[in-house]
Write a structure and sequence with these properties.
Elements (H helix, E strand, L loop, with lengths): L1 H19 L14 H31 L6 H26 L5
Helix pairs in contact: 2-3
């Protein structure tokens, strides 16, 4: 029981010392990015996904043209599906990034 009391007393002493210390300054909050910065970032991200979809399509076509030991139909279908998904996502980001521009 005495150890508990000693710990509690030490904790109280530490709390008092912390309260007596100089107040801690909180860091300044960074202002939120403006809408144009966000729109520009969305447009860049959309362009990235467009490029990624082009590379995916190129990879799928090259894989089927070269004689790799694999099912060419499944590679083409998966490549076309992923190309369409990436292009649609990129288009959505670009469209969302240009929503406020006239």
């Amino acid at each position: 029981m005495t150890r508990r009391r000693e710990r509690a007393k030490a904790q109280n002493t530490m709390n008092k010392q912390l309260q007596a210390a100089a107040p801690v300054e909180t860091p300044a909050v960074r202002p939120a990015a403006s809408t144009t910065e966000k729109d520009e970032a969305l447009m860049q991200l959309g362009k990235y996904f467009f490029g990624l979809s082009q590379l995916t399509f190129g990879g799928a076509v090259l894989t089927t043209v070269l004689d790799f030991e694999s099912e060419k139909v499944s590679i083409l279908l998966n490549g076309l599906w992923s190309t369409a998904a990436l292009a649609a996502f990129g288009y959505t980001l670009v469209k969302y990034g240009t929503r406020n521009k006239s």
